Amino acid sequence: MLKKLSVEEFINKLSSEEPAPGGGGVAALSAALASSLNSMVYSLTVNKKAFNNLSDNDKKIVLTSYEKSKELSGLFLEYIERDKEAYLGVINAYKMKKDTDDEVRIRKQTIDRALEQAMLIPFELAKTACEFYEEIETALKFGNKNLIADVAVAAVMMNAAVESSIVNVKVNLRSLNKNGEFKFIEEKTHKYYEKSLIMKNEILNSIDFLK
Fold first, then answer.
1. DSSP H helical ranges for the chain
2. Domain Cyclodeaminase/cyclohydrolase, which positions (predicted)?
């Protein structure tokens, strides 16, 4: 499994002739890194003096966001595997026989299904990554102030995950959206792109030394 590889092994595999991991895996890894970095901020916040001085309600908000950040780190890693399987599915579909009319028809149907899956996985990733900005904002508000730069990096990396995912949505969408049946996907990805950029910039612009 790709997620079980060491950093060095992953990088070596990424730079090799193997078809996966590729851009989709990198997008998922970017999201996992961002959420893990957010978790680190919480790890160095909870039960410290500033945290203990918070109201019970604010403590609950922090702890809930902390747990969600850890949970989503695992989920984003799963997307590395899901993207690999989807991409290999597309490759295998294109390798199918096309000697007869039936084979041509079945091959086309299989390719379309594989492309749709390869499109939906990064689409889901972009959506979940966009939603994660709420946890980054919570870390910005309540997290250890000595780690404010790490919060900023988490926002930058999460935006990279969103933008990278959208690239992978669009590359598969171009082969599927000829009759406009996936127009809603195109519209949604545009909204995710805009939202991510806005959220990233809002977070960075709220940090004094980055202004």
1. 7-14, 23-43, 49-52, 56-94, 101-131, 133-142, 148-176, 183-205
2. 6-183
